[in-house]
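Q: How would the structure tokens look for this protein?
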Amino acid sequence: MMSGVMVGKIWGIPIRLHGSWFIVFGLLTWSLSRDIFTSEYPGLSLGVQLMLGVITSLLFFASVLAHELGHSWLALKDGIPVRGITLFIFGGVAQIEREPRSPISEFRIAIAGPLTSLGLAGFFGLLFLLDRQFPFLAAPSEYLMRINFILALFNLIPGFPLDGGRVLRAIVWASNKDFKKATRIASISGQVIAYLFIGYGIFRLFMGQFVDGYWMIFIGWFLQTAL
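A: Here is the predicted structure in token form.
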């Protein structure tokens, strides 16, 4: 996941865009402007919807970047180098050079991302309360509030390689003092969750919900292959 177009550095960390990012950026912009904003804010013109779609997509990926910077900041504080951050089809990934030396370090680095997303959800939620009378402002703030909350909850699922899996590993590691065993338990949890996603996706396919079904299967496959 190190390959991609470098767009800058933050704290000396290279920020890259993987090729798949451009695909999902276009799809998200189209979905926001032609489906979500059209149904929830029908008074907006097509041009405004498209403009808001682009802005909201950029802010979404800025939120994903902030999530990964949360991990990276704690890693750097603990003396762990970060080789780079790559944004790709599933969001983002921070390439941390080595494993933390203690359970508390693992826990702090892992939980930093979801807490950052929850903070952003709160920020955009407050913004929505202030601007909900103005559709062209309320549309992006409402979506970003929801998506950051979902991003935080999804990443807290207790299975490797998600943040929740690393939190689980930190807790087990602190309990049994065995890093390898804790890693094995978190990995098994991740495999179970991956197969649950795949099974749920197949169920959605049988229900005729093909887009959701294939997406769930794709997520499950990604989690399985990332272990």
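Residues 1-156 form one domain.

The two ends are 14 Å apart (CA to CA).

Upvote if useful.
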